[in-house]
Amino acid sequence: MIELTGIEKVYNDRSSSTHALKGVDLTVRQGEIYGIIGKSGAGKSTLIRCINMLEQPTKGTVIVDGNDLTTMPDNKLREIRKKIGMIFQHFNLLSTRTVAQNIAFPLELAGINKQEIEKRVSNLLDLVGLADKKDQYPAQLSGGQKQRVGIARALANQPKVLLCDEATSALDPQTTKSILELLKTINQKFALTIVLITHEMQVIKEICDKVAVIEDGVIIEQGTVIDVFTRPEAPTTRDFIRNIINHDLPDMFNKTTFLSEPTADSNLVVRLSFIGNSAEEPIISSMIRRFNIDASILYANIDHIQNTPFGTLLLELSGEQGAQQNALTYLNAQELGIEVIGYVTRFNRAVG
Amino acid sequence: MSQDLIELLVKSLWETTYMVAASSLLATLFGIPLGVILVVTDKGHILENLPFNRVLGIIVNATRSTPFIILMVAIIPLTRIIAGTSIGTNAAIVPLTIAAAPFLARVVETAIKEVDFGVVEAAKAMGASPREIIAKVLLPEAMPSIVLGVTLTIISLIGYSAMAGTIGGGGLGDLAIRYGYQRFRADIMIITVLILIAQVQIVQSLGDYLAGRLNKK
Ligand SMILES: Nc1ncnc2c1ncn2[C@@H]1O[C@H](COP(=O)(O)OP(=O)(O)OP(=O)(O)O)[C@@H](O)[C@H]1O
Ligand SMILES: [Mg+2]
Description:
The complex is a heterodimer. Chain A is an alpha/beta fold. Chain A contains twelve helices and 14 strands.
């Protein structure tokens, strides 16, 4: 549905030039909710604005629904934009128009007749739950209600893609949740492709199927949300996930030095992550029985990422060195994420 | 007060009203588009054209910084071309319009610049053309401020029109000078000043009311 290739964006000011995007490739499939996360100034807004050409990329191509927008003349681009909805952090509603008139705005632009507009607006008002506010002005609405108007407006022309630029960043957690639920409903009901950018991993976790992490104008990691959450590679990604899923070692290891090779009396510390059904299989107990080792649980957590159970377990395995290695081999053969943290000597550990 | 004087007052009141109304209308007709153009051709806006914008800005500023009485005399040849004569009430409308239009343009420019650029972007994202953005976003959103700007312009024009006597434009100001000042008729002076104050008050109140009605913030 959306195909970005080699996108670069350079902002030239009188005194300086900023390389905001440095070659971004991104593919979003029909019906996906694709999240783009990054810190402030990473280039998120620039990237999402390139998708509907609010920002002209310096290099690269933008293909939406089979149309190359980068080479398109203005009048054709405007027609395509009518099929790409967008919602904004600060809502950007017209203050002199009522709720209903705001929602009608894109329909007027599309030259749809009055009766049809009225019908669609009333359906949209029901969809976003604002039927009783239709004659109010934006100044009389709460932030969450304003964003609902924004969403209704973005959907009015039955777009193929919805772009969300920090759509929930100005809202409190509860309102954020209800807006995200609305987006999810819309995604499922209309098979609408959604691209959203955020700086909150919670938002990604809540509704996204895929995620890309952007840093300094480059996508440093991307994949399905479950993969990225369970096996984050880049430090920035870990930073983002930290608040939601703890990938840190417990405090008691603060002073511990981990060895990369086993010694005669060392214990093995591993982190396991379980996804989906494997979380229910008794892997640990069978490992303990088969290899005659002890396993102490240093940290454990079970979470759900979009209905998929996801657990992390930090284990210290003690027993004969050979048994430890066999257990490791066994674990590696299972369908779970495994990360060897290192070896600790028993002495060291006792002190630490 | 004699019948003659009352007739003179009525005639002057009409002249002032006519000059101000006509030049306000014309100034609005030219000033609003001029203000819009000043905004949309500026850097980063929907019809960016910097050289054009700068030249226009200079012209507007030049007109605005010329004192009205000088402007009026300086453009007499132009007035003659447009109005067919360089004296009289109709002739006065030309300099009044030329002075007021750039003034209003700057006021409109400021009003439109106060419209959050976010809504312009939103309209762009919905596929609005520059024309649609101007007609359906910028002007309606800035309308309360524009109405106040027009009000301000009309009030300035009431003031400027007092100087129109210089080129035989007539009006209340002219009456006050000729009778009230030069012939020591304090009563006429007071009456004309009171009428001028009343005119300003009425215009201001109407403007405030209208702007208040339009403002939904
Ligand atoms: N119009 C512009 N002119 C010049 N530089 C810009 C412009 N817009 C963005 N930049 C620069 O490009 C870089 C990326 O900005 P961008 O707005 O895409 O970041 P972001 O990830 O959306 O950040 P935030 O989370 O703060 O919104 C920043 O260094 C910013 O200063
Ligand atoms: Mg941003």
